[in-house]
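[job 4471] stage=fold_predict status=RUNNING
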Amino acid sequence: MSTTTSVTPLLRRGRPMTDEAAAAATDSALRRLRLPTMRAVLGDAITAAEKGQLSYVGFLAELLLAEVDDRDRRSTIRRVASAGFPRPKFLDDIDYDANGHLNAATINTLAQGDWVRRGDPLCLIGDSGTGKSHLLIGLGTAAAEKGFRVRYTLATRLVNELVEAADELQLARTIARYGRVDLLIIDELGYMELDKRGAELLFQVLTEREEKASVAIATNQPFSEWTRTFTDPRLCAAIVDRLTFHGTIIETGTDSYRLAHTRQADSAAQR
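[job 4471] inference complete, writing structure tokens
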């Protein structure tokens, strides 16, 4: 036999409170309920409600929406901060005229985040200075703003962390931690050769995420040259397969935007 206990909230009855008492009681209640935004905007909301002749329900809705909007804003800030980006980069700052290899429509489509929702991979291939890291961080920031959990890391840092975790018998826990994010961003893949053990550990991370959660990578080498980074040809082929299946591949070219920008600035300074 089970019993169900129902709790019916009761409004406090008695003599009407003065405006001062009501204000103090409201402030105290908002503090206890941890509703800082409602507490901060209450005075302005009351003034606006009186001018706009809002109903009680309309007034309450305005307060609640202000709290929800501010919580969403703070959550977005926390997600971007926890992603571990080395510096802020935004898609709006991309100069498409300076790099004709980048297609604005493609980037804008990726910014909507559907590829992250599907768990698809993304590969950026191009020489140093062509905007790969800018794109990775910008797309990662856009994904975090859409509500996705994002983590940024350098390829060498990730492999070193995996090797240390394996030595300390913490590999499963480390791989699981990376598996909990919706988008794992691996920058500078291919800049340094990985031994077989490092490549195998990286392969485990990619396999754990395959068709379940997205991976975005940036590399300075075309796939045909990846055997320089992954010295085991069979393992190299398996990693390429994991990173390209159902994925998007963007080539950022060979002309360094960063170098061209520096030369342009130097030329302008000499005039």
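[job 4471] summary: The chain has eleven helices and five strands.
[job 4471] exit 0
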